[in-house]
Amino acid sequence: MMISNQFNEIPVTKRAAAGFTLVELMIALVLGLLVVAGVGSVFLANQNAYRTNVALGDVQESARTSFEFLARDIRSAGANPCGTANVASVLNGGGDQMLYSSGNIEGWDNATTVADLPSSGSGAPVAGAGGAIRLSSARGAGLELEAVTGPRANVKLENSTTAIKKGNVLMICDVDKATVFQVTNYNSSGKTVVHNAGAGNPGNQTQCLNHPVPQPPSGGSCNSFHPSSYLAIPVNYIWYIGQNDVGGRSLYRYGRGQQATSGTAEMVRGVSEMALSYHEQGGSGYVAAGSVSNWESVDAVRLELTVRSRGFQPGGARGAGTDNQPLERVYTSTVALRNQLNN
């Protein structure tokens, strides 16, 4: 008996191995390169735009801060919280020159010609970077005197403070007079500001805070200051463009507040040039410092600042744009001297 096969045999053939041809690979590579190039160009464009925006932000921030600092001091030039122009000084001669500079404002067309400024190193004025301006004023210290009438050999405060130190230069004033003196000692518990003669640098000519300055004759008394008198801080600063510690340029301030010795302070980094011009009452325009006839008649200052982007490259510059160079902008502002308007 024979059994037949119930299944049909299906012939099987071997297929060749599948893959990409050389042409297909070349096309894929070209397309891939085009995609990478497109992505790369977008990345580089975004990177350049980011660097430019950061650099522009640096420039605008530096310009805004510089104008704020300068405008505050220019507007305040000649300000005196004592409300009087009758100001005397009992300081000895021979101290820091900024203790004796007179006048509310003074300018120079070339900062390198200002004798008081540092001559070398960080903070020295940069040749060709513009002029300099000196601004003097007095600021309230918020310290009132104890309600004591009669002559004062020492200054007795109403409240104790930590803001006063030995060697500080202060101003005592009431409604009709003011006197600049140096603190020779401060007794915090007794709230007493001592201003003896013959001590300190430069020291006081006399213990009495008199008008005029010389010691009163034998048997005389020191000036009386009203019970509502208070202390102020005379300040005197010169603003200019100097070399900073990384080889770049910055806006600097040289001078003194209540300290008896002047110091240099870097105020805003990246300010590379400063041009100054001045307006005198009755004048038709702004003139250079060398053409000012009377500094007491100056009632406005025009500032032109050239500001460069900051960063961590040599010289403190941050690159921007496709050439990776520092970004520069020039800004101009005009500020009036409040205390010399219509004098």
TrEMBL record:
KW Membrane (keyword) present: yes
InterPro entries found in the cross-reference section: N_methyl_site, PilW
UniProt xrefs under Pfam families: N_methyl (PF07963), PilW (PF16074)
UniProt superkingdom: Bacteria
PROSITE patterns from the UniProt entry: PROKAR_NTER_METHYL
UniProt source species: Marinobacter daepoensis
The name this protein goes by in its record: PilW family protein
Transmembrane segments: 21-44
Keywords: Membrane, Transmembrane, Transmembrane helix
